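Annotators were shown the component list below and the corresponding predicted structure, then asked to write short factual statements about the assembly.
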Amino acid sequence: MSIWEYANPKKFMQTSAVVLPFVAGLAGLCLLVGLVWGFFLTPDDYKQGSTVKIIYLHVPAAMMAINAWVMMLVTSLIWLVRRHHVSALAAKAAAPVGLTFTVIALVTGAIWGQPMWGTWWAWDPRLTSFLILTLFYLGYIALWAAIEDPDTAADLTAVLCLVGSVFALLSRYAVLFWNQGLHQGASLSMDKKENVADVFWLPLLVCIAGFVLLFVALVLVRTRTEIRARRLSALLARERLA
Amino acid sequence: MLALLTRDLRLAFRAGGGFGLGLAFFLLVAVLVPLGVGPEGAVLARIAPGILWVGALLACLLSLDRLFALDVEDGSLDLLATAPMPLEVVVALKALAHWLVTGLPLTLAAPVLGLLLFLPEAGYPWLVAALALGTPALSVIGAFGAALTVGVKRGGLLLSLLVLPLYVPTLIFGAEAVKRGAAALDGTTPLVLMAGITLGAVALLPFAAAAAIRINLR
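Structure shown to annotators:
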């Protein structure tokens, strides 16, 4: 029993069909609990008022936007090294989801920034690197869409993902060159005793769990769709030959 | 190797469109910006480093889709791929040829355009140094992008979508170096960081580009 068994599309389809309802249900539950708890059952911040509550969307979305790219990087590497089609399709499936999370993070940030910073947008390092991340997602998705042959597309996008990761990281540190920016430091880290007051912290954790599960569920659905589409085109090709 | 380089250069010079075009585009950007922004010297002087860098970047982008496209059309890329010379070297030479016909003239022309944009005097050495060190990265990164989109018909727009995000670090450090130089500050730090990016790109990206071409020729 090794993890590579799931690289077999059939095995993947069987397992994911079983897993998917649980993941999706759990994601919905976590999001429901986390968001209701966060939005209605926590006190307002003494300085930020009720705007602080956008943290329950903003922080998890931003985390998953980056993690989605990392997941694409890992699956692209697996595709390049081991040639498992499911891996390449999972990377393809994750890209639009990651893009959506990036946009959610940018938009919620703008909505929060307007009353708090007095501006929708600032050329702050974090904001700028997220905008650049958006461009990377767009390029990646566009390259997938532009190339007809599926294997060629998988190879080229995997190479782009590897190179893009390096440059995205470089950009992240290059924008730090301007200034330290408006954005506050990380509100979550393992090495601090208390990050955010516990009243905000616990529902935030639930929301993060919800977003992670949501991401997994969406990627599973989309990967299954891709596999079905691949099977369908194989069937059509065989029919045309017959 | 030399034969390939001279062939590419000769094609760029004689086939028309390639050589002067980027330079003319660069000139146009530098002329259009004052027309749009207004002729006040103080404003222009402030934005000159950024404008010159963005102009150089776009001018570079302009000729990228021709880098491999013509060779694919007439089949010479297949020959080059099967030639005893490693494909990585072919890519590096093509990027070098691209730099010689775009990056180098841009670097040399930039001071003149800096004059048009009232770039402060202290900025000129930094401008030339930053462009000289940064434009090779633009060519190599562009070669990688062109290699990715070699199989795509009319891939010019896709190419710019892929390549422009990759240009971000070079642009930030390059423009920052010139900006600091123009303000009579020391721009060594961004300059050195940018040179590092250039060296890394020149050393590693030909491999990625060659891999992309092999995939495309499969």
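Statements collected:
1. Residues 198-241 of chain A form the longest helix (44 residues).
2. Chain A has a mean pLDDT of 87.
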